[in-house]
Write a structure and sequence with these properties.
This protein is about 5% helix and about 45% strand. It has about 170 residues and is mostly beta strands.
């Protein structure tokens, strides 16, 4: 524990295609605020760089300040104005005939997911806006499915927060 009562958890690990160690740092304050810092230095340009985590399926509503209201990509966001948007979480995904990464929102300053009872989670950008997506299936489900009917909704969500993402044309 730190002098102010907060706790700092540090994890470091080796990841192929990264320079040095990848770091994930969690700072938990006595009032319950969690700050997460992620450090990674790719050896070459990547399609995506971020973190993915599971969230409880009890969450229902999404509110966010980003490009929207429809999905968008870094090179395909001109028709998606910056604004504050609200929708059901399941409405944020876009099921393509051939399953693939989807539902991205660019230049996110904050996003929060709220359950019926008012509890939830909020993610704020600190120093750099981020991209996010959330689905009721996993990345592994997307990679293994050849057709949309092979994707099955799960009880929990997969939430991605990306520092960097290439555009639809892999810019």
């Amino acid at each position: 524990a730190m002098k102010d009562g907060s706790a700092l958890v540090t994890t470091l690990w080796n990841v192929r295609r990264m320079k040095g160690k990848v770091g994930l740092y969690f700072n938990i304050t006595p009032d319950g605020k969690l700050t997460v810092q992620y450090t990674a230095y790719p050896r070459r340009k990547m399609l995506r760089l971020g973190v993915e985590m599971g969230l409880t399926g009890k969450l229902e509503t999404a509110q966010y300040f980003a490009h929207g209201p429809n999905e968008n990509m870094p090179d395909r966001k001109q028709g998606s104005p910056m604004g504050i948007y609200e929708s059901s979480i399941t409405a944020l995904k876009h099921d393509y005939v051939k399953p693939q990464f989807n539902g991205n929102r660019c230049d996110t300053e904050w996003v929060q997911f709220i359950a019926v009872d008012g509890t939830g989670i909020k993610v704020d950008a600190v120093g750099h806006a981020f991209n996010f997506s959330i689905w009721d299936y996993t990345s592994q489900d997307l990679e293994s499915a050849m057709h949309i009917n092979e994707l099955h909704e799960r009880d929990d969500y997969t939430f991605s927060v990306d520092y960097y993402q290439s555009g639809a044309h892999f810019d």
